[in-house]
Amino acid sequence: MSDTPLQVLINQAPHTLPQGATLADAVALAGIQPPFAAAVNLQFVPRGQYAQHALNANDTIELISPITGG
Amino acid sequence: MTPHTLHTDPLTLYGETFHSRLMLGTSRYPSPSVLLQAIERSQPAMLTASLRRQTGSGGEASQSFWNLLREAKVPVLPNTAGCHSVQEAITTAEMAREVFETDWIKLELIGDDYTLQPDTLNLPEAASRLIKAGFKVLPYTTDDLVLCQRLVDVGCQAVMPWAAPIGTGKGPINPHALRTLRDRLDVPMIVDAGLGLPSHACQVLEWGFDAVLLNTAVALAQDPIGMAGAFADAVNAGRAAYRSGAMQAQDSAQPSTPVLGTPFWHQA
C-alpha cells in the first residue's frame, strides 16, 4: 500500500488525510458540530458506518446540518 | 372553523392526522424569535427545514435553529431544496432522515433555476425511489394534471402543486388547472408555493384543496406574527366554506328580501 496522503474534498475545501483514513477521520478533521449527516461521492453514509468507511483519493465528502427552509 | 371542528376534520396524510391545514416554512424571518412567535400564533401542522454545509459561523446558526425546532414541538418536514438530479434528491433525503429522525420528505427537484420550476420529467422517478426506500413523500410539483397523476401512480399519497413560482406571492396564477386537478384526483393536495395573501389560501381551501404550505408570505410581511395568524384563520375559513358548500353563482340579480308585501310596490 502506498503511503501517499489522500487528497479529498470536505464541503468543497481540499484536505489531506493519511492513507487508510476513514470517514470518521474526515469528520474529526472538519470539526463539525452535531447534528449533521454525511455523504461520500453523493452516496449517503449512515452515522454508524463512519469508522468503517475507508476513504479513497479524490473522494468528495459532504457534511450537512439543519438550516431554515421553505 | 373552531378548534373543536378541526378535531373532527383533521388533515390525513399517509395515515397520520394533523389538526392544522397550514404548513409553515422557517426561512427568511427577521429573527428566530419572530419565527418562534409566528409558529406559536399559527399552530402549523408541520414546519419545513433543510440541510446545508456548515461554513464559518454556520455551525452556531445551525445549532440555534436545531434548538428552535425542538422548542417548537411541531413535526418537521425536511426538504430537498436545491437538488437538480434524482440522486442528489435521494441522498439529501437520506441525510435528512438521519438528522431529523423522520421519514417525511418534501421532494423538490429543480429543473430551472430562474423560475424554480420542478424537473417534471424526473420527478416521478425520484418519488418512486424514495417511496420504495420508505419515505413519506410530499412532492412539490407544477399544476400539470398528468404529472400529478403519475406521482400518485408511483405511490405518492399526496401531492403539492404550486400556485405560482416559489416566493412570488402572486397567488393561483392558473385557477383552471388547479381546479381541474382537484376535480380529477382524490388524494390529499397541498398548495405549495406562490401564495402571497391569506385570501389566496382561503381561495384554494374553498376549492377543496386540503392544506397550504407557505413561507415567504409570512416571513416577509411587515408583521410576520400577525400574518401567520391571518393565514391560519384564512385556512380555517376556506376549509369551513368548502365543507359548507357554496351557493351557485347566478347571472342575474336575485332579491334576498321577499318581494311579496313590498310597500309602495309598483310594476316596473
CATH class of chain A: Alpha Beta
| Rg of chain B, Cα atoms, Å | 21 Å
- What can be said about the biggest beta sheet of chain B? 5 strands, parallel
Number of domains of chain A: 1
Largest sheet of chain A: 5 strands, mixed
Report, as a whole number of angstroms, the end-to-end distance of chain A. Answer: 48 Å
Shape of chain B: globular
Q: How confident is the prediction overall: mean pLDDT of chain B?
A: 94
Biggest sheet strand order of chain A reads 2-1-5-3-4
Tally of individual helices of chain A:
1
SSE string of chain B, helix = H, strand = E? HEEEHEHEHEEEHEHEHEHEHH
Tell me what portion of residues of chain A adopts beta-strand conformation.
35-45%
CATH topology of chain A: Ubiquitin-like (UB roll)
What is the mean pLDDT of chain A? Answer: 95
The number of strands of chain A is 5
Distance between the termini of chain B: 43 Å
Structural class of chain B: alpha/beta
Salient structural properties:
heterodimer, A: 70 residues, Ubiquitin-like (UB roll), 37% strand, B: alpha/beta, TIM Barrel, 5-stranded parallel sheet, 3-stranded parallel sheet, 10 helices, 12 strands, 41% helix, globular
